[in-house]
Each structure stands twice: as C-alpha cells, then as structure tokens.
Amino acid sequence: MFTGALGAGIFFASIYGAGLTFAQAICVLTIYLAMTAMAAFNVASDLAMFSASVLLLATDVITREDFLQGFGNSSVVCVGLLLVVAKGVEETGALERLLKFCLGK
Hints:
By secondary structure, this protein is mainly α. Helix 2 (22-40) packs antiparallel against helix 3 (45-58). The chain has 6 helices and no strands. The longest helix is centred in the N-terminal third of the chain and has 19 residues, at 22-40.
C-alpha cells in the first residue's frame, strides 16, 4: 500500500508541476486513485467512486450542492438500479440456466 501512496504522490507532483491548477491536478489524481483501487485492489466500483466524490468534496474542488445533486440525477439512479438487477441475476443463476437452454450442455 505504501508503494501505491508513494506512486500517487509522485504522480500528483508530476501533474501539478505540468502547469495544471490545483483543482485540475486533484481531479486527475482522484481519477487515477479510483481506477487503481478498482483495478489493482479489487475495490467495488460504487465504493471507489463515492470515495472519489468525497475526496473532491473535501478538497473543495466540488461544492456540497454539486456533491448532493450528483446523487439526485436520474442517470445515477438508473445505473444503481441496473447494478441491483445484475446482482440479482448473478445470485439466482438465471443467466447460466438461460445459456444452458440456448446453447445446450
């Protein structure tokens, strides 16, 4: 984990020194950390994205109103519902049964 934090620090220093503003550098770093958490450490996508939003809120990159409005957007609700449906299909094994029926054994 120390290597990940050290890598993130070096990454932040390089992008902040590249002429980006503080807010831009924080945004790029946040995306880097969220993607790394999901890819390398198998962190759930909802947790990684919520943590990224909290980081942006804590560093005053986004306002409290923007933070709360993002969760009230109909697209976010739709994606959340699709994740629930996908988990239900995975847990019940309905997709495997359908594929076995269509493709055979």
